[in-house]
Records
---
Amino acid sequence: MEERILCAAIWYKDLPTQTFLPINIEKGLVVTGHRHPHCIDVVRTLTGLRTVQFGDNSVGETVQGFLTNTNRFVGRVEARNVALNARQLAGRNVISRKI
């Protein structure tokens, strides 16, 4: 099966571990959504916490990335490579863009 990007995801490393995590994540919480702001809003709505590392009501360390169809969490750079290989970015000027 060709690996493809499914959706935006944020890995909340310091939140309590959930039962069903992507296969390459051992602890924390991974929230998915159409775009990253949707993930942030879900966490804020459900927990009252802010997606910042330090301060009052913070969630701690986070990584913005994406979830693939093979249930892997990938960061932005790896996601770009997955999307290019899967031809999900065809017709866009992404080769020269820096992430």
Note: Strands lie at 5-12, 29-33, 62-68, 73-75.
---
Amino acid sequence: MVYIEDEEHLDFYGLEVVRKIIDFQFLTIKVFLERMFYFYLIGFFIPFLFELSIDSLFLKNIAYLLCFFT
């Protein structure tokens, strides 16, 4: 479900103070999401792809553990 704001309240988002707050929150969330992406990439995706390409059971178990704990 999508909430649609009334037309009479849309001018509130045009205020400079509100725009600065929204931009600041976006930049904070952007940094957090970038860090989570790299953490997921290193902790899950790379070990998962590594596990697909090897035959050693010991190394597969290590990769599975990394994927599990991520």
Note: The mean pLDDT is 85.
---
Amino acid sequence: MEVYETVPEALSAAAIEAARVADYITFTSASAVRFFCQAADGAPALPDTVRIASIGPVTSEALREQGLAVHVQAARHDIDGLLEALVADAAR
């Protein structure tokens, strides 16, 4: 019995543009990476100014498999760890 099903939604042109001008894009799971790229019809071309943050190594590997660079990876693989990593990175 499935408890839930994750279903990707198509990204609007506005959502894709918002990703291209964001300071950070965060990913909390490998499925989020896959669905983001699927919804964008492949990994979107992001400028070097956009930093990608990952919750942990499995998510980071999924990002690399999609051809996306990982700039920040949480040391502790939970939301608080991701937030700590983001704050530390932004402070640099």
Note: The first helix runs from residue 13 to 21.
